[in-house]
Amino acid sequence: MIPLPDHMKFEELFRPRRPTEGGFLETYASNVVVCFSAKWCGPCQTLNKKLLVELTPDVTWYSVDIDQNKTSLGYAGCNGIPAFCIIKDGTFKDRKVGASSSTDVLSWLQRNEVPVNI
After folding, report:
1. 42 FRET partner, CA 20 to 30 A, in 64, 82, 92, 103?
2. How far, in Å, are 26, 114, 117 from residue 83 at the CA level?
3. In the chain, domain spans
């Protein structure tokens, strides 16, 4: 998972990309999932994040430590942790607050048409 240390980095997931030096426009990753958690959160620590990443190779994963990045959780419309949000092609699609297990998260991803290799 790629850390998102501040809210500006989080907001960049929703902004149009700038032209690159080669003249090509960068594109959005088609499947982005952001995981909100904290080191002190017991349920956050029980989730197998490595397994989530391994079973979703077509997903770009980001992580937000809510103690470092205090704004993005509310911006995503989440009011508790662990929480996840799906961003497809630069557009917010869905959120999940209070995941109880990695299997629960994978099922939610599948319901939202995010590719999962189970």
Report:
1. 92
2. 28, 16, 21
3. 2-15+25-111
Q: Is the peptide bond before 16 cis (omega within 30 degrees of 0)?
A: no
Enumerate the β-bridge partners of residue 2: 62
| Cα–Cα distances in angstroms (integers) from residue 61 to residues 54, 85, 91, in the given order | 11, 10, 15
Tell me the pTM.
0.86
* Nearest CA-CA partner of 6 in 65, 82, 91: 65
- Inter-residue long-range contacts of 90-95, CB under 8 Å, 24+ positions, other chains counted: 90/13, 90/14, 90/15, 90/16, 90/28, 91/14, 92/14
Residue 110 neighbours by CB distance under 10 Å: 13
User: pLDDT digit string (tens) for 70-102?
Assistant: 888 888 888 999 999 999 888 899 999 987 799
pLDDT 10s digits, 4-52: 888 888 888 876 655 566 655 556 677 899 999 999 999 999 999 999 9
CATH number of 2-15+25-111: 3.40.30.10
